[in-house]
Amino acid sequence: MSDAFYTDMAVTAxxxxxxxxxxxxxxxxxxxxxxxxxxxxxxxxxxxxxxVGVVRSVDRRYVDGTLVIATDRMATLPVKxxxxxxxxxxxxxxxVDGQPTTIKKxxxxxxxxxxxxxxxxxxx
Length: 124
Fold this sequence. Notes:
The chain is of the alpha+beta class. It has 1 helix and 7 strands. It is globular and about 50 Å long.
């Protein structure tokens, strides 16, 4: 398929998820600060990015019993709902209605080519 198709799908995904979004989601990115003394590390700086997305129970096909368990949750974030240049990473935190949650896994859909959404598996 052409790139135009996937670009249109990214816009459509954003529109649908934005319309049915429940609650508030913010992606927190912490950046380490260089410390002049290595034995006394400085506090990292944190930046919050409001994002568009939906959160639901984790899809059972991802449950492996070790890293991903049945009580985990999954967030779907359309790429068009993220700030420019921000790509979710496992070191980030996703705040769901003000509660910070760890990101266990970041999946991009599709896995190659133009990204439509990111699926984040969140710790319970």
